[in-house]
Amino acid sequence: MNNKWENNIRRVVPYTPGEQPKIKDIIKLNTNENPFPPSPMVTKVIEEFESDRLRIYPDTDSTVLVNALAKRYNVKPSNVFVGVGSDDVLSMAFMTFFNSDKPIVFPDITYSFYDVWADVYRIPYKTFPLDENFRINADDYKCENGGIVIPNPNAPTGVLESTEFFEEIVKANPDSVVIVDEAYIDFGGKSCIELCEKYENLLVVQTFSKSRSMAGMRIGFAIGSEKLIKYMNDVKFSVNSYTMNPLSQYCGAAAVEDEEYFKKTVNEIIAVREYSKEKLTALGFTFPDSYSNFIFASHKSKPAKEIFEALKERKIFVRYWNKDRINNHLRITIGTREQMDKMFKALEEILK
């Protein structure tokens, strides 16, 4: 049967997220989720939320959340854009800003959603290889392009670059929008948000999924010049005005306001990460120095795929990609000290 209607289908290779196992009693270290619960202030909002609010449409401007973020990051509400997870924010940014015939550019080893969005929106793109230490060469990005997107710290490597590094790239590209994707910045880096006031073409994107323990609620945001944010909202309101439900808006605002809890849990993850670096090194692993909530590790003698499968048999899930340049690495999310110790014990058995 000749289904001619299929000739008009937009075909893309979709993004492949980390496995979400349906079995119980596992140690899940494969999707960079936070091992701690959200702020108690978030729990309070959920407990007191009146379900009758769901009868009406949510605030299209997400005012309570936007105002909380503006206060927290010392910017105006007109400098803040919110979306349903940073994936939604980034997707909207791709649609809004990357519309020239020139290719957008990003690293070859990076967040694997970038090329998917480029394919979906028919955006030409080019990648630049990381060096042998998984670092980005700033000079690569001083080229003719239709836009730039780079994570900092990079994923899946965990490598951090300085704000001066990104300012150099932004300065060299006054005719392009530069997006810095800071999903993991709270785990040891300095944000580029302070540069947004200086550079009208810089957009900084962050998420509640990692450092604020709210991956299941899907909240992301961007901070940039008023002009950039207005353009993004124009596109958003042309696609779907009611993207974020009211419970998410109020829970997000509560999480932002609980700075004490935020700092406490982030510092605990950083402490366990540093402890984990020592343990992995003792077991024969090498890795770039990570400033994220994961470690990108390779063993000196045991293939990564074998370790991945052996851990999975023990109900310990880490992330593995069968891709060039990274097919002998595992990305290991930082869990609680107890979870990590169980994984280290399993690794000792596997590596014997």
The CATH architecture of the largest domain comes to 3-Layer(aba) Sandwich
**Do you know the CATH topology of the largest domain?**
Aspartate Aminotransferase, domain 2
Lateral arrangement of strands in the main beta sheet: 2-8-7-6-5
What is the CA–CA distance across the termini?
Answer: 57 Å
Let me know the CATH homologous superfamily of the largest domain: Type I PLP-dependent aspartate aminotransferase-like (Major domain)
User: Total number of β-strand segments?
Assistant: 13
Give the biggest beta sheet. 5 strands, mixed
Radius of gyration, in Å, reads: 21 Å
Question: Which CATH C-level class of the largest domain is it?
Answer: Alpha Beta
- Content of β-strand: 5-15%
Average pLDDT: 96
- Count of DSSP-assigned helices: 10
Silhouette: globular
Task: Return residue spans where pLDDT drops below 50 for at least 5 consecutive residues.
Answer: none
Order of helices and strands: EHHEHEHEEHEEEHHHEEHEEEH
Residue share in helix: 25-40%
Number of domains: 2
Supply the helix-strand structural class: alpha/beta
